[in-house]
DNA sequence: ACTTGACCTCAAGCAAGGTTGAGGTTGAAT
DNA sequence: ATTCAACCTCAACCTTGCTTGAGGTCAAGT
């Protein structure tokens, strides 16, 4: 009883704060996995909680499930992921997070500068960058938030 | 010709980089408005470009269209919005942006700390805050990103 | 007059990320 | 032995944020 390694979907839901329906959905998408009992009920290993933590964190940053799934597929799968496995994974994510934060900061900066001078216009300040996190994927670079800072001279 | 104040939906699309269908969609949602010609075609005033810039910027930060629409409804509507109108609006948004950035930073920090020690677990580090921008709405407060920083002692 | 491209409406479809409900089983406790 | 919450599947539905297509009009050039 001290370390029963398996939990039910309900327990997983309770512990993670994620609805049972969502958990089943995640499983259907391959984000988490489970063993089945003789009676066809799901049993999750406890490290699934970590996976879910990772999923929710990633979602909050705006990463789509598919991409999260790709990332998670880098984890071992058979053996329980080690601390290092997680560390490697999250290191990658920290890069994404950093990028995202920088983007937001540029945005905020741009908003300050450009609105202060009244030129909140797309063609000049290029505040509207169509991409976020997904940016890592495509080869085609889209117009970025102002190479030089602000939109100073033209406004 | 120097200052024809009105543009067609196609021109608006071209200048903003937003698809015509999306522009019509925005109009249907009340995010932008247009006058109609005798022949029932849309004509937009040029400051619509600013609105669209604002919309796209806001979307990038993860704000849903409804909320953006609420914000935009604070703009005059009859008279063309002045610089100050925009400034007021964007000041509000900067607050949101700041919050969002802070959240991300807490996240990154949490990711560093908690993963370094191998305890990426929901119940301890509470990295999984279900809400973002939407947080302003619900009365029920969900578990927040660590009151104290990190997950130090328990890990 | 006629062609052509840009415009119009309205309905349907799509993708993501789930939730809801019907109808049926399991399993732990009484 | 029975009960009853918790589990199962599968299909349908929901919201957001658009796109696509059918069927029709408008306006400018030849």
UniProtKB/TrEMBL annotation, chains A, B:
It holds the Pfam family MerR-DNA-bind. InterPro entries: DNA-bd_dom_put_sf, MerR-type_HTH_dom, MerR_fam, Redox-sen_tscrpt-act_SoxR, Tscrpt_reg_MerR_DNA-bd. Residues 6-74 form the HTH merR-type domain. PROSITE patterns: HTH_MERR_1 (PS00552), HTH_MERR_2 (PS50937). The keyword Iron applies. Gene3D superfamilies: 1.10.1660.10. GO terms for molecular function: 2 iron, 2 sulfur cluster binding; DNA binding; DNA-binding transcription factor activity; metal ion binding. GO terms for biological process: response to oxidative stress. PANTHER family: REDOX-CYCLING DRUG-SENSING TRANSCRIPTIONAL ACTIVATOR SOXR (PTHR30204), REDOX-SENSITIVE TRANSCRIPTIONAL ACTIVATOR SOXR (PTHR30204:SF0). This is MerR family transcriptional regulator, redox-sensitive transcriptional activator SoxR.
């Amino acid at each position: 009883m001290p370390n029963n390694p398996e939990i039910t979907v309900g327990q997983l839901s309770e512990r993670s704060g994620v609805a049972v329906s969502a958990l089943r959905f995640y499983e259907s998408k391959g984000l988490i996995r489970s063993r089945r009992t003789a009676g066809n009920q799901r049993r999750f290993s406890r490290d699934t909680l970590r996976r879910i933590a990772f999923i929710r964190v990633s979602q909050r940053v705006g990463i789509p499930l598919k991409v999260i799934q790709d990332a998670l597929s880098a984890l071992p799968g058979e053996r329980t992921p080690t601390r290092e496995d997680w560390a490697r994974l999250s290191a990658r994510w920290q890069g994404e997070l950093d990028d995202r934060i920088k983007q937001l900061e540029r945005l905020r900066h741009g908003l300050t500068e450009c609105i202060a001078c009244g030129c909140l216009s797309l063609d000049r300040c290029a505040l509207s960058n169509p991409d976020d996190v997904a940016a890592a994927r495509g080869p085609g670079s889209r117009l970025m938030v102002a190479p030089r800072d602000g939109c100073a001279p033209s406004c």
